[in-house]
Amino acid sequence: MERFFATCPRGLESLLAEELFAAGAAEVAEVPGGASFGGDWRVCYAANLHSRIATRILWRVGHGAYRREDDIYRLAHGLPWRQWFSERQTLRVFVTAIRSPLKSLDFITLRIKDAVCDRFRADCGSRPNVDTAAPDVRIHAFLTEREATLYVDTSGEALYKRGFKTASVEAPLKENLAAGILKLTGWRPGETLLDPMCGSGTFLLEAAQIALGIAPGLGRPFGFERLKLFRPELWQPLLSAAREQAQPATPLPLYGADQDPAQIAHAREKLRAAGLEQAVPLQAGDILELVPPAPPGVLVANPPYGVRLADQQALAEFYPRLGDVLKQRYAGWRCYFFTADLRLAKLIGLKAGRRVPLYNGALECRLFEYRMVAGRLGR
């Protein structure tokens, strides 16, 4: 059995573990920012293809104690890299650490790269080149206070990059975090979903794929396809089954709005790139003026955070008005707001049913839940 580690946004580890079990993983163990697991290569391929929460799936290839930089060099140099990829391929090394006593992670990165290249030179007389932009192979090292673990990245580009090649819009909310938030709301396909501050449409795009049974990795390549160990006879049946499961785009009870017409254009571009434009109706409009488009369901939004002082003042005035609108128009809805601005809970005038800690990158956030009960104020 091979050993792997899946990374994910902090706060979504339990949801990631559920996906890994569904992919056939064994011995799943959650840690902050991910989960380790065991399985064969089919499990690795399935996790890459089907996980909506994971950021990367890393294959563990080396582990050992260290005290100095040379110990990590020897650990990396002792691995049979040429069995896994060719000296004609490009590579890049990434290093992360928690409480490591070593002074420079940049120097450790260089030493691991040197170790890999020196081993290639010793084994076959030549070495791979480094490509920091689009390497064929990514090598990851994780250092604790006394131990180092080396991984080969089986995903390639981050898994939240779903593979819609013509979409040029970068969203502030990554797709895997949006998928995790949707899971936390309890939304299910067939239920109304409204994002009244949709920006470039990440929540809606993820929901449409879920509703239509479209595997998140169906339209993209993976790092494991470039390894010598790649087994097409395991991969092709998984890919074929995912293609058969995917349904054609049809109108869905998913609705998006934004007060900025440019954001609506961005959302349309992303939906069009995914072949899902007709599945999700969009409109320009202010959340404070919108009329709910359908029977009660789930409202989910990622409001602006108010980095500038002027924005903070505007948001402080906005939150009480938002609370009034929810009470007046959204009886029966489950409303969720994902934000780093914790003033929302104090100023919205509603009692949050849940406050789920999550991270958007390094930024600590909360997912606030408000259940708007018909005939009563929200609780």
Kindly list the characteristics that best describe this protein:
single chain, 379 residues, alpha/beta, VC0802-like, Rossmann fold, 2 domains, seven-stranded mixed beta sheet, 32% helix, globular
Description:
With 379 residues, the chain is an alpha/beta fold. The protein has 2 domains: 2-153, VC0802-like (2-Layer Sandwich); 175-212 and 247-371, Vaccinia Virus protein VP39 (Rossmann fold), CATH 3.40.50. It has 10 helices and 14 strands. The chain has helices at residues 13-22, 41-50, 69-77, 105-124, 175-185, 202-211, 232-245, 261-273, 309-329, 343-347; strands at 2-7, 26-31, 34-39, 56-65, 91-97, 137-143, 147-153, 193-195, 254-258, 282-284, 298-301, 334-339, 354-360, 363-371. A 7-stranded mixed beta sheet has the order 2-3-1-4-7-6-5. A 7-stranded mixed beta sheet has the order 10-9-8-11-12-14-13, covered by helices on one side. Strand 6 and strand 7 (147-153) form a beta hairpin. The longest helix is centred in the last third of the chain and has 21 residues, at 309-329. The protein is globular. The N and C termini lie far apart (48 Å). The mean pLDDT is 95.
